């Protein structure tokens, strides 16, 4: 699959230009991004596409020296499974309740 990588957004389109898969991680504050959306078209589910998206998002976040707060349910689960990727997470994040830290960061 060919992915289009833009600032804080990685996605794939079909030949008709329709969205097939995406991950969004916009800047919320300073050097902090929120991984707030992971989408995979039903026709592609179960093929590892969401994992590929999160790997690419992780690499982008790390390369840009950002820190992340995952609020999308898939991203939270992905980070729980991939403890070796926690280096990009905001310090002190509780993956069982990431919204608490997100609300704290956004209220600063």
Write a brief structural summary.
By secondary structure, this protein is of the alpha+beta class. It has three helices and seven strands. The strands form two sheets. A four-stranded antiparallel sheet has the order 1-2-3-6.
Question: How does this model look, in words?
Answer:
31% of the residues lie in helices and 27% in strands. By secondary structure, the protein is of the alpha+beta class. It has one domain: Gcn5-related N-acetyltransferase (GNAT) (Aminopeptidase, 3-Layer(aba) Sandwich), CATH 3.40.630. A hairpin with a 2-residue loop joins β1 (4-6) and β2. Residues 3-90 form the N-acetyltransferase domain. This is N-acetyltransferase. It holds the Pfam family Acetyltransf_CG.
Largest sheet: 4 strands, antiparallel
Terminal CA distance reads: 39 Å
Run of helices and strands: EEEEEEHEHH
Could you say what the CATH topology is called? Aminopeptidase
> What's the total number of strands?
7
Instruction: Specify the CATH architecture.
Output: 3-Layer(aba) Sandwich
Q: pLDDT average, as an integer?
A: 91
Structural class, from helix and strand content?
A: alpha+beta
Features of the shown structure:
about 110 residues, Aminopeptidase, four-stranded antiparallel beta sheet, GNAT_YJDJ, N-acetyltransferase, Gcn5-rel_NAT, Acyl_CoA_acyltransferase
Secondary structure topology:
Blueprint: E1 4-6, E2 9-13, E3 19-24, E4 27-29, E5 32-35, E6 37-40, H1 49-63, E7 67-70, H2 73-81, H3 98-106
Parallel strand pairs: 5-7
Antiparallel strand pairs: 1-2, 2-3, 3-6, 4-5
